[in-house]
Amino acid sequence: MLLYCLLDVSGLDRGRRRRISEDVYICIQVQEVVGLLYEYIKMLREIGPQEWVFKELQDMTNMEFRFVEDDHPDEYAVNLSSKS
């Protein structure tokens, strides 16, 4: 459905019939999210990335690593074997 919304928003899917109103509402939400994303990218280009954001993400990642919960040995083995 997301692909349908993107095609509809971009104008590439004009020949297809419109779907029910729920899909149109989702397309409107996708348009709003994409619009906000482009505004954020524009802001980053103008002011550049902020060091405090990087530092906060770095601190959160360090805390996640430091306070990681121990897995049971059998769960750990399953997790290791399922990774490629």
User: How many whole angstroms does the radius of gyration measure?
Assistant: 21 Å
Q: What's the structural domain tally?
A: 1
The main pleated sheet reads as: none
Low-confidence stretches: 9-18
Mean pLDDT over all positions: 75
- Alpha-carbon distance between the termini? 29 Å
Number of helices: 4
Element string (H = helix, E = strand): HHHH
Helix content: over 70%
Strand segment tally? 0
Q: Give the overall form.
A: flat
Strand residues, percent: under 5%
Structural category is mainly alpha
**Assembly of the depicted chains:** single chain
Identify the notable features of this structure and list them briefly.
84 residues; mainly alpha; 4 helices; 0% strand; flat
Protein architecture, described:
With 84 residues, the protein is mainly α. It has one domain. Helix content is 74%, strand content 0%. It is built from 4 helices and no strands. Helix 1 packs across helix 2. The longest helix has 27 residues. The chain is flat, with a radius of gyration of 21 Å.
